[in-house]
């Protein structure tokens, strides 16, 4: 299972719905990294979700590394899984996984990555819609890039209720701002199961008092489910 996002690549071997060790790579030589994984053991099937465009040359190279390959695209996702064509493959895979894990329950999926994506599905599994805003680290970088005097900070362990200097004001603005955003969406659909995923899922889950589910590899689980259904 391979998920190529805006910032990093995540990959995992899967046997049915059971994921093995998860690999993460952040760099420009993603194809070489994938080939280093397939060189150790030839997969029967590669399932690829990517927000980046893969060249035909790279696709053909990957096809030689496996017996079969699925590349998620909007047409396939819309036709087979009833997911709108505008959703990126990773968000679509998260929806597919949530439908499986929480069958018969409506869900709100919070994906904490380069972007902060929120998706809603009803209890029948139908996709209702969602939202996109800058992710946590993107917000910190934006303040630094587009201001003249603000420093570049990272998410702190402790966040004060209000800032008392430049650093704590930025920390409070970014983190508390996202928490207010989360709380607003949760309260708008109190009957929904809340699922946190993505790189910063645990960081924000620790700041929530109410019960939520953290599934860090939700996208890879969705890809594994697609692989399982394809195999069957």
Give a verbal description of the structure.
With 232 residues, the chain is α/β, with parallel strands linked by helices. It is 39% helix and 24% strand. The protein has helices spanning 30-38, 56-63, 74-81, 89-101, 136-146, 166-188, 201-205, 218-231; strands at residues 2-4, 9-15, 18-25, 45-50, 68-71, 107-112, 115-121, 127-134, 193-197, 213-214. It has a five-stranded mixed beta sheet with strand order 3-2-1-4-5. The two termini are 17 Å apart.
User: What is the H/E order?
Assistant: EEEHEHEHHEEEHHEHEH
The span between the termini is 17 Å
Secondary-structure-derived class: alpha/beta
The amount of beta strand, in percent, is: 15-25%
Query: Care to count the β-strands?
Result: 10
How does the major sheet shape up?
5 strands, mixed
Shape: globular
In DSSP terms (H or I, runs of 4 or more residues), the helix count works out at: 8
User: Strand sequence of the main sheet, in spatial order?
Assistant: 3-2-1-4-5
Radius of gyration of CA atoms, rounded to a whole number: 19 Å
The helicity comes to 25-40%
Please mark out the parts with pLDDT under 50 across 5 or more consecutive residues, or reply none: none
Mean pLDDT value: 93
What order do the helices and strands come in, and which of them pair?
Layout: E1 2-4, E2 9-15, E3 18-25, H1 30-38, E4 45-50, H2 56-63, E5 68-71, H3 74-81, H4 89-101, E6 107-112, E7 115-121, E8 127-134, H5 136-146, H6 166-188, E9 193-197, H7 201-205, E10 213-214, H8 218-231
Parallel strand pairs: 1-4, 4-5, 6-9, 9-10
Antiparallel strand pairs: 1-2, 2-3, 6-7, 7-8
Helix pairs in contact: 4-8, 5-6
């Amino acid at each position: 299972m391979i998920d190529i996002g805006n910032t990093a690549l995540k990959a995992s071997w899967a046997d049915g719905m059971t994921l093995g060790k998860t690999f993460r790579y952040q760099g420009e030589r993603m194809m070489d990294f994938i080939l280093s994984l397939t060189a150790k053991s030839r997969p029967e099937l590669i399932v690829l979700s990517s927000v980046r465009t893969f060249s035909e040359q790279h696709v053909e190279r990957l096809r030689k590394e496996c017996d079969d390959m699925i590349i998620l695209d909007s047409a396939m996702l819309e036709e087979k899984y009833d997911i709108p064509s505008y959703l990126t493959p990773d968000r679509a895979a998260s929806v597919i996984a949530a439908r499986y894990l929480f069958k018969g329950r409506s869900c709100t999926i919070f994906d904490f990555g380069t972007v902060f994506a929120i998706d809603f599905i009803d209890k029948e599994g139908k996709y209702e819609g969602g939202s996109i805003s800058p992710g946590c680290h993107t917000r910190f970088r934006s303040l630094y890039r587009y201001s003249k005097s603000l420093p570049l900070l990272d998410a702190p362990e402790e966040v004060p209720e209000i800032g008392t200097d430049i650093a704590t004001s930025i920390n409070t603005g970014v983190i508390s701002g996202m928490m207010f955003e989360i709380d607003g969406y949760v309260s708008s659909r109190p009957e929904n199961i809340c699922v946190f995923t993505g790189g910063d899922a645990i960081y924000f889950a620790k700041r929530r008092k109410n019960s939520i589910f953290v599934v860090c590899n939700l996208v890879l689980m969705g890809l594994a489910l697609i692989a399982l259904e394809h195999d069957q």
